Amino acid sequence: MDPTCTRWAVALITLLIGPTSRLLPTALADQPAIATHDVDFEDDVIPLLREYCFACHGPDEQTKGIGLHQYAAAQDLLDNRGVSEKVLQAIKFGRMPPAGEPRPTEPQRRMLSAWLESVLQAIDCSGPSDPGRVTIRRLNRNEYNNTIRDLVGIDIRPAEDFPSDDVGEGFDNIADVLSLSPLLLEKYMDAAERIAAQAIVVPHPDGGPRQRREHEALVVEGENKRNLEGDFWMYTSGSVAAHFEFPRAGTYLLRAIAGAQQAGPDLARLEFRLDGTAQKTIDVDAGPDEPQAYDLQLQVEQGQRKFTAAFVNDYYQPDDPDPANRDRNMMVRALEVIGPMDQPDSLPESHRRLIQASPEHAAELAAVAGENLAPFLRRAYRRDVADTEVATYVRLVEMAVEQGASFERGMQVALSAILVSPHFLFRIEQDPPPADPPDVRQLNDYELATRLSYFLWSSLPDDELFELARQGTLHEQGVLRDQVRRMLADDKSAALVENFAGQWLNLRNLDHMTPDPSQFADFDEALRRSMRRETQLLFETIMREDGSVLDFLDARYTFVDGRLAEHYGIPDVQGDEFRKITLDDDRRRGVLTHASVLMLTSNPTRTSPVKRGKWILENILGTPPPDPPPDVPELEQTQQVATQLSLKEQLAQHRDNESCAVCHREMDSFGLALENLDAFGRWRSEDGARQIDPTGELPDGTTISGPVELVELLMSRKPEFLRTLADRLLTYALGRGLEYYDLCALDRIDRELAANEYRFSVLVNEIVNSEPFRFRRGNGEK
Amino acid sequence: MSNTNLYRRTFLRGMGLSLGLPLLDAMAPRTARGGESNPGDTPVRMAFVFVPNGAIMQDWTPAATGSDYELSKTLSALADFQDDITVLTGLAQDNGRAKGDGPGDHARCASTFLTGAHPVKTDGTDIRVGVSVDQVAAAEIGHHTRLPSLELGIERGRNAGNCDSGYSCAYSSNISWKTATTPVAKEVHPRLVFERLFGAEDEADRSRAERDFYRKSILDLVANDAAQLQARLGQSDRRKIDEYFTSVRELEQRILRSEQSAAQARPSFSVPEEVPGELQEHIRLMYDLLVLAFRTDSTRVASFMVGNAGSNRSYRMVGVSEGHHELSHHGNEAEKMASIQKIDQFLADQFAYFLGQLKNTPDGERSLLDNLMILYGSGLGDANRHDHHNLPAVLAGRAAGTLSTGKHIKLEEETPMNNLFLSMLDRVGAEVAEIGDSSGRLSLLDA
What we know:
The structure holds two protein chains of two kinds. Chain A is of the alpha+beta class. Chain A has 30 helices and 20 strands. In chain A, the strands form six sheets. In chain A, strands 2, 3, 4, 5, 6, 7, 8, 9, 10 and 11 form a ten-stranded antiparallel β-sheet that branches. A two-stranded antiparallel ribbon of chain A has the order 1-12. Chain B is of the alpha/beta class. Chain B contains 14 helices and nine strands. Chain B has helices at residues 2-15, 21-27, 57-60, 105-113, 133-141, 169-172, 190-198, 205-230, 235-260, 279-295, 324-328, 334-359, 368-371, 417-427, and strands at residues 45-50, 85-92, 150-153, 301-305, 362-363, 366-367, 372-377, 393-396, 407-416. Residues 1-40 of chain B have low confidence and may be disordered. Chains A and B meet through helix 9, helix 12, helix 13 and helix 14 of A and helix 1, helix 8 and helix 9 of B.
């Protein structure tokens, strides 16, 4: 085996992918296919530049201000990195020299490109390095939901109705990609009002909301009659009733609008009943022409209840000498329920959190509003706030009260305003004036607490983190480490599983997969959920138990519930509960063999070795292949005689085509090794009538067969996997794409992982302690 | 409202606020600026419908040109409207081509469709393309209506992974760009579209007035926050705050406009609580909402992404189980091309449904279809070759009699799509000198 073959493939991929390439481990970057350390700038590079570039970018002419003759040593390239990167891109994609001009030979061009790349990627990590700069970050949908939950104390997930956040660098929390359109601001405004209305209970000005039932809405029993106005006349014992909603337990007013025609010794009487149980009997003294309200104040439990007003003392003496004293009748015009009239016994947590004190009299208003708002504002803004900032919100409360609204309504308005403020919606790391300092500075403890909590919890810091930030001790090594441990153990770190693992492994796209029902009739949403849960549980277990991150690749255990066990053909697992099982056959190891990953790398009707191979290159090895060039059909579509050849034979034919072979040899072999696992992740031995041969040949001639050999091969390329994982997690933690200067941080993370049994906590701690995470640079030119 | 306005000013003075100039400008009633069209005229409206993954052009393009032509197989779906439409052949979006940026034609297809500008290839920093034609129109005529523009879609943006070869997903899930750097998010949920147009519930005037009163105060306050922040942040941060500021201003304007006009009664329209599971139902519901928006003059500008660029949806209702994008790399294989043609025709059928609704809706003395114009098409021609020329394009509607319709026009090869946009903008009263890579107007369309 000639080892340079493998390197060729890697180098070519690197050459083609351009800006999307992940930062390779320095060990790899140092030795690309072309032995760049044998290249000498003066002897090998300058002559090429002179021959092919100087005509336009040389001593006589500097088109677009680029003059390559000024580069006397390799260091000059680094000192002018902006220009050098452009030159690299131009050479890499063959844009320069332009068509029609003399061009270097293909090997010369590759040499130049590979050498330039190696120079630009080689970086000195001995001193402090550039920590980069993160743009202010808008809360994305998940962060918004979690932040509202933890800040206000109500879990209503308002962001479900927001437009989706665009994805960049593989994640939806990338500062530069998160834009804010007018539509989104409208949604923020609506959400803020909804949240305020739910979080703060406003006392009702006239006793509470009123529900009224009349006419057809009333149910009658007994011999009763409706008159022209729709009123009910009860001539014998009878009743009217209606159903009312009692939204919560509390004090309500039950009211009948009634009048009576009197006769006999007693006044006409109405009995109020609730759900059939008599509550009180009331004398009705109003005449039928001027009905009055008869009330009963009552403590009522929450629920829908029937309110009945019954005429209970009918009187009929047709022989009475006084015609006006012969007949007692009752008339009911309407039934009403008013309330709840009291503040609930237990105000919601959110209300108590926001309104810890209420003003006794008008003069106190501003002071009390400020007292309530200041601590809330600090948490919402995730920093200390100035008195003047609190004052602007106090003015809103005052304004509402001046308009005649209650204090609570004023607090609702202030809360709505806080929730649409840029200080809340964006995570802002404010550099001290003057703006745009080129200097590097360490984050303050509030900023650090915020980065930490959004990294691990996708939410704002909790009281403990805020307190440590206030004391200014959070950045201390021991404190920080303890906090990371505490945070990973907290339930809120489920957000890291959902948001990081969900995106790194593309799990979230599982929702959009539409497997063909004719191929797999049993597929349903429950199975989709179980598939996703299996992979989440693997991540969660490694995180919570501080396991080795290599388990992602080669775990000999997994998690199944009854549904998934049946799907996998694993006996004796029933029910909805997931349990850990040992994988002792040669069918499955690690995440590559999870049904979730296998399905989301398949087409709706069949497996796609190419997609699976590509997924491995992207997410495990960190070398995403470029798209096929236009007008070259995708691999599986070149064969007109497709039906007679197995998929494997078709792939083999395609690899004979040189322009495809570069990437496909490796990619397809990975995918082919997984062919025993079908498009839904089930084990199979045949595909239709054909026996499956899960063997693939790598560019260096090695063969791999079946999932276990594939996983072993990938384990032998551990450094690439670890680098990919660190790259992905650091990108997620920072919310920006990585740059060349982040290489030092990545190298350090790799070293520490290797020295500490690849433990998950080491990965997280190293990220949290890295320069890009702990420091920031101003916006000025470096 | 005069009392509250007065109060608001007092309130602002009391807070010692100094408002940024743009906001003051925004608060001036737009109608005072002159240049308004005669209110008696029926307004001309415009819409842009994007379908993903190009089309099978041999089944799309009619054989003959001129007014005596027979519709093609795919466009036969539009037979009832042949007199109301113009089929345009030969349009190109040159900036969708790689131009040295390598692969990523699907991302470029969506992002150039309405902009005609070349997107910066990036997965994160410095996302930039150009202002889209609908947003140019919205900026000019949006103040006439409660919503300056409406952006609809069917598929939410992908929420993980790589969308297309090193291009951020912002490029493949948006066609409307408010500025070169801010895509306009689209709404995919019919109920939310309806609520955006007509409110979440029948509100009493009193509660609406109270809410708007507080909203204005809140927006004043946060605009002031933003203005103060603006001065103290770095350059890329300022861009984000700019977006915020623009959005605040737009919401302010919306409140002012709704104060100046009577409340729009909620039309009786049954809108499901959840997004329909059936694609056809979903698409038609979105078309219904567009009709509703135009009929009530809630907006005069709309865009609709029937699918995101590179959409890999299956169309089982027409017997296509494979994914659309996967199929579109068909390698000229007859069976695959036939499948895609079925998809093309299915989508054209839905468009025909839209045209039917528009034609049945009276608007002044004519129908809505007579008074508006809709571009229906894709940013890719033959998806197998990733062509950015010879794009599928149908222009429907008569723009109040200013468009000559009923023809298949074969334009000179490589005619910029943006030339068509200039001609469309003229007709809605948003005349601009140029947009994107436009090189002139399409006078061939004039009636």
